[in-house]
Amino acid sequence: RQHEAPRRVKRAWVIPPISVSENHKRIPHLLVQIKSDKQQPGGVIYSIKGPGVDEEPLGIFSIDKFSGKVFLNAMLDREENDRYRLRAFALDLGGVTLEDPTDLEIIVVDQNDNRPLFRQDVFTGRVVEGAEPGTCVMTVDATDADDPDTDNAALRYSILEQGAAGMFSINATTGEICTARPGLDRETMGVYNLTVQAADMSGDGLTTTAMAVIYLEDINDNPPEFTKEEFSMEVEEQAAGVDVGKVFVHDKDLAGSPSWLAKFTILEGDPEGAFAIRTDPHTNDGVLSVVKPLDHEVRDRFELTVSVQNERPLEPSAPASPRALATVRVRVRDVNEAPVFRENPRRISVLEGTPPGTPITTYTASDPDTHQIQTLTYALLYDPADWLQLDPHAGTVRTKRELLHPSAFLQGGWYIALVLARDDAEPPLSATGTLSIEILEVNDHAPQLQPPAGVLCGRPGRGGTLLLGATDDDRPPHGAPFHFQLSPQHPQLARNWSIARFNVTHAVLAVLAELPEGPYSLPLLLRDSGTPPRGPPQLLNVSVCHCGRDGTCLDGALAAATAGAGITLGALMIILGSTILLLVLAALGAARVRGRRRALRKGLLQRSRDDMRDNILNYDEQGGGEEDQDAYDINQLRHPELFTARAKPPLRRDAPLSSGTPMAPRKLPSSPSDIEDFINEGLEAADSDPSVPPYDTALIYDYEGSGSVASPLSSIVSSLTDEDQDYDYLSEWGPRFRRLADLYG
């Protein structure tokens, strides 16, 4: 051929979609045969590729490579894969492509092999009780895995079971559940359990069920009611803050909700407000309590009218309750009450100095128990000064001793005592009353002139004045101001003397005419401001002295003034002379003592170079007891130079070998008066030395010199008995121990 016609695809090689039903059980199943128009002498090789062949899931489809037949090798599930797209190839024996690859689509046809499934097993909804019909509560929904475009997934809902009332209905298409009838009452049935169903094939296919639980919410459609119309209780008198009893109520509404909680009110019978009522939050009952003490003698019973209602207002449609009111009768039980002092404290006034046995008051208590026959007795609970006595039956208080000022038991002029009143009940009760007694001041002390004597110049206007004062043991208003006056019985005094008031406690005595020197006795009248005033005559001793130019008394005049004050001049000179003589003798004695001490110190310093051992250890005899003062020279203890002059410290023979050399000797006191302190300090140092035994240490006050050839004295007591000790070696120690060798040898 010169010109080749345009090529066209053969109809045998174009493969239309192939449909196969899911769950096909005849396996293998021929789906289609493909054929190429380009037949070769050796034949054509066919193959397919794609999901279900060489891709997951593998092995579902296969092809006969020589005939081109495509087979189904496994059951299909549309819900897993609703179609497969494969590619078909045609090759010659040499592997050369004869045709372009073509598509092979296999569609899985749905079957109704899946039941509907509710999204949850239990659906929950709520609706208030009394809801109108048509009130929607909830929606139930289900799913179907089948093809939604077929009836296999067309679902319809229905209520299989809800009880005999049939209070709810369901929309078959949407699954919405609504109320169907009126009369939902939580108190009758609080929960509805519905069994709902979903079916495919528009209600004629496969089905499934679920539960729909509907709770009715409470409203306040039931008022609270008392369980009975009357309640009786009793309470003790004088009790406050205690519970009397309970009133019981019943409410059909949901327990614990505001529609159930009760609220109580006392409407009548308690004008004083002695009672209160509250709600028990657990039982919803009313608790009646006493808030003010009750008195059986005043009122022994109460009749209260109590109402009850809910915290939440009642629904308008709810009927009123005939038991919203109740009567509560409370009886007040009589108990023994303590006596009462109507006047507490009792304040009275008593004059000081009131004689013993004087009645001052009657302090009694009253018994509130008027319906009981009881006797009260009295006793003094507190009487710190033991001033009072009390009649145990009448309560009369008398003075036991005289009440006087001043006293440590008075507080601002008041005396405090406590009286105890007790009844004779079982058990007895008592009360305490305070008795405050004001001790009134009495003008029983006359003012005293202070001072009773004085001195002044005898010239008017030039030191011729004297300030007079007075004291009074009485308290105001029986003391100051004081009134000073020259005795009217001696009118001649007014020619030479005058008295003028200075302040409330002092006055000024002045000379009116020049008077000769000498003593004068002026009778005065000194009165206080008491009622009545007291003012016995008093004598003022005044000495008129010789005045100097400046208006002051000269020295001789001062001595005369002193004599005029009650001491003669001769006696005064004797006293002054004796005083001067004593002072001179004391000065001479002190000078003599200082001279002796100075000479003694000088002599001690001159003898400081003597050997201490010759003075301390020169014992030629044992001494004559306490009267012997020559056994040793005490001056050795007064020379600190002898103890510090040695360069080498002494060795302690009584110390252990392992112990170190003791410290250098202490510095001795510089004054002989401190010898006793020095000895005591040495004894304390020896006792506190841990390196030697105590019996040897107490004997060491200082060393006895160095380089001695004698053995230590400690060997004297080295044996147990005197018979075992040989004292002959003492004669070898030198002349100082010869006397000792004669005694013990």
From TrEMBL:
Residues 12-118, 119-226, 236-341, 342-449, 464-554 form the Cadherin domain. It is a single-pass type I membrane protein. Cadherins are calcium-dependent cell adhesion proteins. They preferentially interact with themselves in a homophilic manner in connecting cells; cadherins may thus contribute to the sorting of heterogeneous cell types. M-cadherin is part of the myogenic program and may provide a trigger for terminal muscle differentiation. The keyword Transmembrane helix applies. This is Cadherin-15. It comes from the Eukaryota. GO terms for biological process: adherens junction organization; calcium-dependent cell-cell adhesion via plasma membrane cell adhesion molecules; cell migration; cell morphogenesis; cell-cell adhesion mediated by cadherin; cell-cell junction assembly; homophilic cell adhesion via plasma membrane adhesion molecules. Keywords: Calcium, Cell adhesion, Cell membrane, Cleavage on pair of basic residues, Glycoprotein, Membrane, Metal-binding, Repeat, Signal, Transmembrane, Transmembrane helix. SUPFAM superfamilies: Cadherin-like. The gene is Cdh15. The keyword Protein transport does not apply. One of its GO terms (cellular component) is adherens junction. It is found in: Cell membrane. The chain crosses the membrane at residues 569-591. Its main location: membrane. Residues 650-671 are annotated as: Disordered. It comes from Sinosuthora webbiana. GO terms for molecular function: beta-catenin binding; cadherin binding; calcium ion binding.
